[in-house]
Write the structure tokens for this entry.
Amino acid sequence: MKINIIRISVFIFLIFFIIIMFVGLTKNNNYNTKNLVGNEISEFQLISLNNNETFFENNDLINSQFTLINFFASWCSPCRLEHKYLIKLKEENKKIKIVGINFKDKKDNALSFLKELGNPYEFIAKDSDGSVSVLFGVYGIPESILINNEQKIIKKFIGPINQSHYKELVQIIN
């Protein structure tokens, strides 16, 4: 009788274990932030990379038709790949302001990165501990968020901006 109770208990445990494993493996665990599109951006204040002063906040978004907030770092290889498109966007389109947020990087490294590749940013903020990126729903870099002057998120680009994204950005802006 004791052996049957043990066998039944082990069988029930195995069934529950299999069910839990199946649910865990089939569940979509991707962190999806596409639901942010169309929503108003949360209130924020950004701290300057250069002088540790608050220099950019929500109200600054209404001064231009569009703002592209780009999260980057000097140690990020895909950030190097997208950088030429940010430079091109700055040079060719005056309807957009590009704000850079330097993610978990050293100030000197970030400034060297921008000196080497060019600076497409009107403002550069720091996110030393990653807390700013969480506020924007960023979970990896590079990521970029396009915002209009009504503080609504128009588009979110996960990963490096490429030629296709660049064309899409220009089309939205124009």
Confidence is low (pLDDT under 50) at residues 28-32. The beta strands are 45-47, 54-57, 66-72, 96-103, 123-127, 143-148, 153-158. The first strand starts at residue 45 and ends at 47. The chain has two domains: 1-30, 34-173.
